[in-house]
């Protein structure tokens, strides 16, 4: 059986022998030949209830490959029958615009990950740390009952002391002045000194006053904002360095970096989707692509099969016999076209049935332990699996 599914590029692996190349042969009837030739039928083991079924030789792996998006063929690197390795490009569509998109997205990411970008992020982190320290200090001072820190209060007290000394000096000059002009100038200087003293006193009294609830709430909000900014700065620095960050990480700078990386990943994925590459080491069994052709999406373009590892998949294993078949069970396979037999073991039994001529049958896959010379996918076979002693 063959399973086809779109991937990027569209690749379907028909694993464990699920698929044949070309038309599936008509299933052979299960017939036990008395004294028959070994070229047509494996003999049943004496003293055992053997299980017999017809089958067909299939590749261990097969991939039906198609493009997820349509396009014009730019190059074809292989021919049918070529041996290919995993990851080898088979067919490539025109993709100059996709390559340009990758280059543009890559430049943006490189700029955001540059040493200069990292240095700027680390500087922003240092500033965020200082902002949080200052906010926590101011909040702590207010919680102690003052609007300002002890250092600020001491500075205000010193300024008030100097302002009082200035008032005393100008008052002495005014008292000793003679003449109207000298008296007037001394009064102006004294008045200015008194105003400066009064301002210094008001500042000191305000600093020593108890903060309001609103002022405390504002400092709480300032501290919360500084803490959040510091966290976002730490996440951003980690992202630029390439370190892991949690999924809940936020921040405008981080979002810009992540968007740039997502754009690059999407561009690279689109470019990759313009190429069909071998999903495993095998043989090109079919190829339908020529340079210049337009290939619609979803159309099978190439088939790659692992013809070095062949299996036999039964076609008429009866519902009456399937319970006697188990994984690991030894079997003998007769290849009619070659007149040869080969040993094998059951590697899988389908859990779901199909119908054949109105009968319920199950597919069992038998791994060949040795490959007869000349064996090809699609050949018919007869399988006899050993029963219980």
Written overview of the protein:
The structure is a single chain. The protein is of the alpha+beta class. The protein folds into 2 domains: 145 residues, Efflux pump adaptor protein, beta barrel domain (Elongation Factor Tu (Ef-tu), domain 3); 142 residues, no CATH class. 39% of the residues lie in helices and 22% in strands. The longest helix has 29 residues.
Summarize the structure.
With 389 residues, the protein is α+β, with helices and mostly antiparallel strands. It has six helices and 18 strands.
**What name does CATH use for the topology of the largest domain?**
Elongation Factor Tu (Ef-tu), domain 3
- Neighbour order of strands in the largest sheet: 2-11-17-14-13-18
How far apart the termini lie comes to 33 Å
What global shape is seen?
elongated
Count of helical stretches: 6
Strand and helix order? EEEEEEHHHHHHEEEEEEEEEEEE
Number of E strands: 18
Radius of gyration: 43 Å
CATH class of the largest domain: Mainly Beta
CATH architecture of the largest domain: Beta Barrel
Q: In which range does the helix fraction lie?
A: 25-40%
């Amino acid at each position: 059986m063959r399973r086809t599914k779109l991937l990027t590029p569209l690749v379907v692996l028909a694993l464990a022998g699920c698929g044949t190349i070309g038309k599936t042969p008509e299933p052979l009837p299960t017939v036990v030949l008395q004294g028959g030739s070994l070229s047509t039928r494996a003999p049943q083991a004496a003293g055992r209830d053997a299980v017999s079924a017809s089958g067909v030789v299939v590749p261990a792996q097969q991939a039906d490959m198609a493009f997820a998006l349509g396009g014009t063929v730019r190059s074809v690197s292989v021919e049918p029958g070529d041996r290919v390795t995993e990851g080898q490009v088979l067919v490539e569509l025109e993709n100059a615009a996709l390559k340009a998109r990758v280059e543009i997205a890559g430049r943006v990411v490189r700029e955001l990950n540059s040493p200069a970008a990292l240095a700027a992020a680390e500087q922003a982190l240092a500033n965020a740390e200082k902002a949080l320290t200052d906010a926590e200090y101011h909040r702590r001072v207010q919680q102690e009952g003052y609007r300002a820190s002890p250092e600020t209060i001491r500075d205000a007290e010193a300024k008030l002391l100097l302002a009082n000394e200035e008032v005393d000096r100008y008052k002495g000059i005014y008292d000793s002045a003679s003449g109207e002009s000298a008296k007037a100038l001394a009064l102006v200087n004294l008045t200015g000194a008194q105003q400066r003293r009064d301002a210094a006193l008001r500042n000191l009294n305000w600093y020593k006053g108890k903060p309001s609830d609103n002022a405390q709430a504002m400092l709480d909000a300032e501290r919360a904002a500084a803490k959040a900014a510091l966290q976002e700065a730490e996440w951003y620095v980690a992202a630029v360095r390439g370190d892991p960050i949690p999924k809940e990480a936020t921040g405008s700078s981080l979002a810009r970096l992540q968007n740039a990386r997502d754009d690059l990943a999407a561009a690279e994925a689109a470019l990759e989707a313009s190429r069909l590459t071998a999903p495993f080491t095998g043989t090109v069994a079919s190829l339908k692509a020529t340079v210049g052709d337009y290939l619609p999406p979803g159309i099978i373009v190439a088939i790659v099969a692992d013809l070095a590892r062949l299996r036999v998949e039964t076609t008429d294993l009866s519902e009456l016999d399937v319970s006697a078949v188990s994984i690991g069970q030894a079997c003998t396979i007769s290849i009619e076209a070659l007149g040869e037999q080969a040993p094998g073991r059951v590697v899988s039994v389908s859990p779901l049935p199909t119908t054949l001529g109105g009968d319920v049958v199950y597919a069992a896959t038998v791994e060949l332990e040795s490959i007869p010379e000349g064996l090809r996918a699609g050949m018919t076979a007869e399988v006899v699996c050993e029963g219980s002693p």
